[in-house]
Amino acid sequence: MIRFLIPILALCVAALLSSCSKSEIPMKDDRLFELRVYYPHPGKLDALNNRFRDHTLAIFEKHGMEHVGYWLTEEDEPKLIYLIAFESKAAKDKAWKDFVDDPDWKAAYANSIKDGKLVARVDSTMLRTTDYSPAIVQIQANPERLFELRTYKATDGNLSHLDARFRDHTIDLFEKHGMTNLVYFHVAEDEEGSEDTLIYLLAHKSRKERDANFGAFAKDPAWQEARAASEAAAGGSLTQPDGVKNVFLLPVDYSKIK
Is the Cβ–Cβ distance between 204 and 213 less than 8 Å? Predict the structure, then answer.
């Protein structure tokens, strides 16, 4: 009898879980993420995008690298910023080694730099999702959607207080004011910034709506109360002076998130 009841119980549990909100059920993504920033040489951005579109993405997939999203910074000299994911650090190390050694990559790379190298510099940061981060949803909701990458440097010992404010107040208030929470990260263990850095990604319908929504958020009494209470508990500001940075991002045509 028990073995016949198990499938029924499983269905009941699944139905119950599907009726719960994301705030009631944590969906921790335990993958290791890598945030990479490419600084193209002047005039080389189109060639860099072509190399990613025509070669790099397929070779990433071949070696088990999981695409998350690809964007260009909204500035006069755009940078390419992307997120990829791995099952573990060991998987990441193996994937990059196999990628670099891959004959297809070597051929694509050599062909792409016949007229000069495409990239002046690459920055890489390894990331883990926070316990309050929503699960990443790779949808192409609107090709005109604006993304915003925000980085917070917490004051000494206050990253946990900053997390608590986001977990208990900020992310819900962002949603209240029309902003989409995509993902929240800490810098991975043993990396510079792991003890004081929060990095997260928002989406907005447009720059105009983004500015209006952040303005309304800043004036919201619930936010002002949460900020004051969190700073009182921590004994001061939770972020360092000039410790909040943001960059606006536009998805490229080959991104899984738009």
Answer: yes
